[in-house]
Amino acid sequence: MLLTRYQDLLLEAGCDEAGRGCLAGPVFAAAVILPAKFKHPLLNDSKQMKASDRDKLRKVIEKKAICYAVASVDNEEIDKINILKASFKAMHLALEQLSQQPEYILVDGNRFTPYKEVPHSCIVQGDGLYASIAAASVLAKTYRDEYMQQLHAAHPHYGWNTNMGYGTKVHRDAIKAFGETPYHRKSFRLLPDQLELELDFEGSLE
């Protein structure tokens, strides 16, 4: 069972991101403040959940949360400032949009850039420990998946409707065949180094 609070004195928001390791598309982040007694049997780390369960929970979270917000930073900004800073920026943008500002922040992971003067704690694998972080992970993941589905309609070769921009074989093969799109992260290693490609080619001749 997920814990509902890290501390009991201050109004607490959970934060998480989605899409940090993708080759294409924005990074999304969500911030969620849940009621103290919020529980749901399906709630868990979003990566451990079925897509249909995430979609169900998104509606529940949006209805039951004290407040929530979702924000994103696009691939061009990611290339300028790097993915770690972009993830933190997306979290800050989500926090700024909350209708009630938190007095304490729980962040999934081991690093975070402080938000204003608000104290925070970084929780490794926090999306499997605290309800507010898990709820944020569900919102960030579902909003990002929805966005990548929309991009897929214009760029169907890359399989973004199923891989969501991650570096699957289908995605990388499409980059080889069709090149990059305006949504690819140029600062990421989209394909193996040329040396590896040459070695693979020589190996195939043996």
TrEMBL record:
Gene3D superfamilies: Ribonuclease H-like superfamily/Ribonuclease H. Manganese or magnesium. Binds 1 divalent metal ion per monomer in the absence of substrate. May bind a second metal ion after substrate binding. SUPFAM superfamilies: Ribonuclease H-like (SSF53098). GO terms for molecular function: manganese ion binding; RNA binding; RNA-DNA hybrid ribonuclease activity. It holds the Pfam family RNase_HII. GO terms for biological process: DNA replication, removal of RNA primer; mismatch repair. Its cofactor is Mg(2+); Mn(2+). Keywords: Cytoplasm, Endonuclease, Hydrolase, Manganese, Metal-binding, Nuclease. The keyword Nuclease applies. The keyword Cell membrane does not apply. It catalyses: Endonucleolytic cleavage to 5'-phosphomonoester. GO terms for cellular component: cytoplasm; ribonuclease H2 complex. PANTHER family: RIBONUCLEASE H2 SUBUNIT A, RIBONUCLEASE HII. This is Ribonuclease HII.
